Amino acid sequence: MRMVRIGIDVGGTFTDAVAIDDRTHELIGQAKTPTTHSAREGVALGIVLALRQLMEAHEITPEQVRFIAHGTTQATNALLEGDVAQVGIIAAGSGVEGMRARSETVIADVELAPGRFLKSRSVFLDSDALISGLDAAIADLRESGTQVFVAAAPFSVDDPSQEREIMERARAAGFPAVGTHELTKLYGLRMRTRTAVVNASILPRMVETADRTASSVRETGITAPLMVMRCDGGVMTVDEMRQRPILTVLSGPAAGVAGALLYEKISRGIFLEVGGTSADLSAVRDGRGMVDYAEVGGHKTYVSSLDVRTVGVAGGSMLRFDAKLKRIADVGPRSAHIAGLPTRSSAILPS
User: Fold this and answer.
1) How does residue 349 score in pLDDT terms, banded at 50, 70 and 90?
2) Range with the lowest mean pLDDT among 11-20, 61-70, 191-200, 305-314?
3) Contact 328, 315 (CB under 8 A)
4) For the chain, which has fewer Cβ within 10 Å, the N-terminal or C-terminal residue?
């Protein structure tokens, strides 16, 4: 029986599905459908439509699917367009290291798009008062609009017990929570906290997407584990994505570069990908994609990814017109689908 591998790419404008022969890696077929942002099922509906179209057109049965993975720009687009959750940071420490932790866990607002910021607020608790002060800290941050929590403590990569206590209490109060030790084993509390804040800001949206996507794929009868493309070119399980969605930032461009390396045998060159929401530029050298720490809003994180330069200007970008100057004032990063406009639109909005 012929076995196949299926890949799905969820972009801001279109969702694409492709099937290749598991043994020869030859292309079997492909399908395309508009990304379903406004559907009750979210983008998961577009994944199912593209998947069913692909399987029906090329007579692929669920039993033949040996591997299925999807790359997504959802995390990238959320950051480009500033569609993120407000983050509450609870830090703990004592002595000299506690004094440093108090300042290093205060993360300034990160401008993601003009006038749109990733906002966070920090509360510091002395280690001796951690247990007794947690409920009040959580309540205080909840009142300020916090939607998801980050736990931060010095040297938590060696001893994560304090961060785990904070996370457990936040989850018991009904909030998603992540710890800095879950994202990297590198020291440097400020950068570790910043990475966790970015991860937390997209966590609610990405968890919802992951749940719906996994459920929708199962409804097609496919039993192969659903994998998600990472920003460094590897893959991870959906369960890991639910905790560390930041690893999917730039996963779409990573998949494109991986495909170019596999099929075009490129050893050196520039890779340019223009989608509906963003345009991505990366380099291939000595047959490998360049890897660096990812940047968000001009700030480095502890997430290794392809060294991709992304701008929020692409095929679906909205134009802003300056009525006084009678000229286009700016393009992007908002896309037409965010405003409920058709994919092909000549609408010019007042500034």
Assistant:
1) very low
2) 305-314
3) no
4) N
Residue 308 host element (H or E): none
CATH of 85-198, one of 3.30.450, 3.30.70, 3.40.1390, 3.40.50: 3.40.50
> Residue 45: what are its φ and ψ, rounded to 5°?
-65, -45
Question: Residues 68-88: what's their mean pLDDT?
Answer: 81
Six-digit token pair at 11? 């972009």
Residues ≥6 apart with Cβ < 8 Å to 14: 32, 33, 34, 35, 276
In sequence order, what are the residues at sequence separation of 6 or more whose Cβ sits closer than 8 angstroms to the Cβ of residue 143? none
Task: Calculate ∠ Cα 54-58-60, nearest 5°.
Answer: 85
Percent of the chain with pLDDT over 90: 35
Terminal-to-terminal C-alpha distance of the chain: 58
Q: How far is 292 from 309, CA to CA, in rounded Å? A: 11
DSSP string, 171-222: HHTT--EEEGGGT-----HHHHHHHHHHHHHHHHHHHHHHHHHHHHHHHTT-
Contact indicator for 312, 275 with CB cutoff of 8 Å: no
Residue in the structure block whose two tokens are 């037409």? 336
Tallying the residues shown for the chain, one arrives at 351
Q: Which residues in the chain are classed under CATH 3.40.50?
A: 85-198
CATH homologous superfamily, domain 4-78+206-262: ATPase, nucleotide binding domain (3.30.420.40)
Give span(s): CATH 3.30.420.40, the chain.
4-78+206-262
pLDDT of residue 341: 63
Question: Six-digit token pair at 231?
Answer: 């920003």
pLDDT tens digits along 7-33: 888 876 788 899 999 999 899 999 998
